[in-house]
Amino acid sequence: MYGVNVGCTGGCLGERLNGIQEVSGSIPLISTTQSSYSLNCKSFYYTKNFEDGLPYLSTLRCILNNKELVKYFYETIVSLNLLDKLSEYISENCILKNGEDTFSIGLNGMMQHLMALRQTYPDYTIKILRQYSDGDYVISEFVMQGTHKGDFMGIKPSNKVLEIVGVDIDKVIAGKIVEHGGAANTFECFWQNKLIKPV
Questions:
Q1: Residue 63 has what pLDDT?
Q2: What is the DSSP letter of 120?
Q3: Among 94, 126, 130, 145, whose Cα sits 20 to 30 Å from the Cα of 114?
Q4: Chain-centre distance of CA 90, in angstroms?
């Protein structure tokens, strides 16, 4: 599953060489229940930081476009709850855009947000459906699926598997998300699943 097929300069990826090596070709990064990731780069660099014999994207200095980076962040880093790697994708000065309002959340704010989501939906995953880019901005349509096992704004756990769809708008500078915003159909999802009702 984790085979490597690359052309190497100065050694093979599987040898866990010290220092930095330059390689070219295609390398599978990680397999999840949703996707098997593969990078096709003109050239990229990797370090000796391996997990399960496989380098994570964060250890690669790859020629990736912003859409690929955002997709990998949500589908792998977030979906697999790899919060220890969050600082490699989220800027310390990250801001949240909510309509015309701007809030400074930083790395810690994003961490708290993702932890709160995990408390409500312990098994949730995110799949990116479509993406568009405009300069530094990446617009991603997504579907989030998870089992409602925690309180959410006073709504008791239903143990139902919920699917919430939405759009994220992320600004990426130098390989990190510096601005995040978007919207999701949480209300409609809860209404359809009879978790809320008219007063």
A1: 59
A2: H
A3: 130
A4: 10
pLDDT in tens, 155-179: 999 999 999 999 999 999 999 999 9
Task: Say what the alpha-carbon torsion angle 175, 178, 183, 184 is, to the nearest 10 degrees.
Answer: 50
- Tell me, yes or no, if the pTM score tops 0.90: no
Residue 153: per-residue pLDDT: 87
Instruction: Give strand pairing partners of 170.
Output: 138, 180
Residue 23 tokens, joined: 């390689």
125-134 vs 36-46, strand pairing mode: unpaired
**Which positions of the chain have pLDDT values less than 70?**
1-63
Number of helices and strands in the chain (H, E): 3, 10
3-state secondary structure 31-96: ECCCCEEEEEEEEEEECCCCECCECCHHHEEECCCHHHHHHHHHHHHHCCCCHHHHHHCEEEEEEE
- Residue 110, phi then psi, degrees to nearest 5: -65, -40
pLDDT at 62: 52
Neighbouring residues of 7: CB distance < 8 A, sequence distance ≥ 6: 23, 24, 25
